[in-house]
Write a structure and sequence with these properties.
The chain has five helices and five strands; from the N terminus they run H-E-H-E-H-E-H-E-H-E. By secondary structure, the protein is α+β, with helices and mostly antiparallel strands. The chain has one domain. Strands 1-2-5-3-4 form a five-stranded mixed sheet. The N and C termini lie far apart (38 Å).
Length: 115
């Protein structure tokens, strides 16, 4: 039997071995990793995701800042608010300046990594 972190690393390793991948869905992909392994996996994913479209579902602001270009805030979308889609930088800045993170438990984050 493997731990949660080991299972996540195995799944990410399988992804990194794939070729001809253009779209990637990552759902809480680093939630069970320790900080050292998270940094290693983040670097590998940054390289792998270049030129690909990725949808990253996470609660981690670190993952947003490390992997995402745009944020779709599902709480704002559900309430019909303007600016449900923001750049990751704008989204994180709004959190730092005291804006509410929304009541939504899920935030879907879209990333289009530049080549």
């Amino acid at each position: 039997m493997v731990s949660g972190g080991q299972a996540q690393r195995l799944q990410i390793a399988r992804l990194l071995c794939r070729q001809d991948v253009y779209y990637v869905l990552l759902d809480e992909c680093m939630s069970a990793l320790d900080p050292v392994m998270r940094a290693t996996v983040t670097q590998a994913l940054k390289v792998f995701l270049r030129g690909k479209t990725a949808m990253v579902i996470t609660h981690s602001h670190d993952t947003v800042s490390d992997l995402c270009d745009k944020v779709l805030d599902l709480g704002k979308l559900a309430h019909g608010e303007d600016r449900a889609i923001q750049s990751a930088r704008e989204y994180l800045s709004s959190l730092e300046h005291g804006a509410s993170a929304t009541s939504s438990a899920w935030r879907a984050l879209f990333s289009r990594m530049a080549v």
